[in-house]
Amino acid sequence: MATEEIVSPKRKRRRCLPVREIMEAEEEKPEFKVIDGLRYVVPYNFVLRTYAKKRWFDQSILEVLTREFQAYPASYYKSALASGRITVNDKIVACEYLLRDHDFIAHYVHRHEPPVLDREVETIAETEEILVVNKPASIPIHTTGRYRHNTLLKHLERKHSKKLYTCHRLDRLTSGIIVLLKNTQKAKEYGALFRDQQVKKTYLALVDGEFPETGMSCSEPILQVSHKLGINKVDHDNGKPAHTDFKRLHYDSATRRSLVLCLPQSGKMHQIRVHLAHRGFPITNDPIYSRENWAKKSTEEFSKELTEVLFKRDNISRLLNKEQESSAILSSKDSSDQVKSNSTKPPDETSPKLLTSDSETKQIADKLTTTEPTNMSSTSHETAENSENKLTVSGDGIKQAAEVSMTTDGKFCLDGKVFERIPQLSYDEKCPECAWIRLVPALEDMFIFLHAVRYELDGSFYVSPLPEWCQKEWIPAQFHDLLQISSE
After folding, report:
1. pLDDT tens-digit readout, 250-273
2. 444 and 365 Cβ atoms separated by less than 8 Å
3. Higher pLDDT, 298 or 309
4. Is 171 one of the catalytic residues?
5. Longest CA span, the chain
6. Close Cβ partners of 99 (under 8 Å, ≥ 6 residues apart)
């Protein structure tokens, strides 16, 4: 998200900022810690600032904050307004205060960012104006939501000591080629190439089912169901035109999974994921579009169901807030301050095959946390069955309570998976989040089997190495030149 200048209300001209716009004139250099393959940002003090939007006028500050910024419950906003952690025009106001034009809202926070996989960002090509890199999975490209320093752009700007500009995007869970520019003029030129569909893009995807040998195409229109949640769906009445061509590269009959070459001819959000799912071949570990009977549901049904699922998953840490009804039970348990990843046996290297189970997906996840391939033979015996002290937690705005179990050693079970608590890297007594229980994300949930492997634009082409989950033997010889694979 590009930042915009904040213009003083005393001046006649005022530019509206996006809802989640974040501005800070001066900030301390971030501190990072790597624990078991995950890169954490040590929580830091920060100020979120924005002018009141027109749609907020004549509404109470509490109502607006609770609706527009759902990372915190209403109880937090009441406390923050009373204590002055949230101010309007640099003054403490009541929860009932009605927002007006030119009101300037500031929120002083001790910011906690989610962890990402600790992977080096490989440079594919670089000139005086262009930087092309191989983006690891799990890391967002730019500041968004709770991510600020744990982003690709911030990481590379620190590394190169230079301002960089984006001209396209990849989903946080997707890996592959990202083209960055070193000046605004080139960024505008390349941005126009992407908007005008003058870029030839090639992706690799691992999907469920036996994909047709002859390949297929999909020209179904795509509708954005929810901008906030980033959900899209095929919708013939209201969707926008989109087209993707697919070619099968490899199929494994034992696992019933196929490796597919994806050639999007347009650039809609989640286009490849939506088209593959609609054709009945969802990406194997896609957390959204691999859901059963996804394509058969109406847009309204799909949106409602998925919103509930994602809300439960993304807000489970908030549900465990000590201020909620289960605080007494949760606070009495000791949680480990170490982050540990599960490991599984490596696949048979003598016989190339597609991943056979969720355990092998976890094995790839473990591999993603290392810069070099590592064989891991130990297995975790943690299961939800080992847990006890089952309890139900709920929070402000939660329509459906989430059921959580706790193990005897203070870990948490949700949807059959065992999670540990994120280690406390710093503490601010005025920060309510420092007392919250946040869970370490499961490694297999930090990537999907989708990789941007080749981009062609402006008379040049860029090719990335194959992703960790794709073996060289799966690529037919006729595609070796396209993907720059040596025959050795």
Report:
1. 999 999 999 999 999 999 999 999
2. yes
3. 298
4. yes
5. 71
6. 52, 56, 57, 58, 59, 60, 61, 64, 88
| pLDDT value for 488 | 65
Pairwise CA distance, residues 75 & 87, whole Å? 16
As beta bridge partners, residue 177 has 134
Q: Which amino acid is at 485?
A: I
- Residue indicated by tokens 């941007």: 452
183 Rama sector, left if φ>0, alpha if ψ -120 to 50, beta otherwise? beta
Catalytic, out of 103, 118, 171, 208: 171
pLDDT at 376 over 90: no
Question: Per-residue pLDDT tens for 38-68?
Answer: 999 999 999 989 999 999 999 999 999 998 8
Q: For residue 303, what are the contacts with CB-CB under 8 A and spacing of at least 6? A: 225, 226, 231, 233
